[in-house]
Amino acid sequence: MSETEKPLSIDAGRLKHLEMLQQVIARMANNSFLVKGWSITLISALLAFATKDKMAAMAWIAFLPLIAFWLLDAFFLHQERLFRALYTKNCQPPLDILSDLSFDTRSVHDQAASWFKTIFSKSLLIFHGLLAFMIVAIIVFVH
């Protein structure tokens, strides 16, 4: 075997690890998408009841799932960013070491924004901020 050739098992192991990391990233993105869907569904239902029955308290209650889903969405986005950083790290040389093939994101923790900063990221702030604006608009409408 020449110096430029690598054993097949190492390449296959690295490739399989990157595929598994990509699957985790896809699951995190899917979870975030589902959280947004549930957020819209639940908040819309609460706001529909609030406007139908002219109950401002029901509209105020809509802030509880908004905050819960916002925090959960930030968690999934933060985890996705950590796994993306881990994926990028595992694509860097040296590519022939299998000992660093783990799913522990502590080694890349400084490469992604903190969970608290993720809460106020542009994408989450726009989506959940618009929902908060809708809730406030319904509260004003009901009063």
List the helices and strands and how they pair.
Layout: H1 8-53, H2 56-61, H3 63-91, H4 115-119, H5 122-142
Index terms:
0% strand, single chain, 143 residues, mainly alpha
The total count of helices amounts to 5
Question: What overall geometry do the principal axes of the alpha carbons give?
Answer: elongated
**Structural class estimated from helices and strands:** mainly alpha
Largest sheet report: none
Beta-strand percent range: under 5%
* Helix-strand sequence: HHHHH
| Helicity level | over 70%
Q: Mean of residue pLDDT?
A: 87
Total domain units: 1
Distance between the termini: 79 Å
Q: Which blocks of ≥5 consecutive residues have pLDDT under 50?
A: none
Number of strands: 0
Radius of gyration: 22 Å
What does this structure look like?
By secondary structure, the chain is mostly helical. α1 packs antiparallel against α3. The chain starts with 7 loop residues before the first helix and ends with a helix. The model has no long low-confidence stretch (mean pLDDT 87).
In short:
This protein is mostly helical and 143 residues long. It is 75% helix and 0% strand.
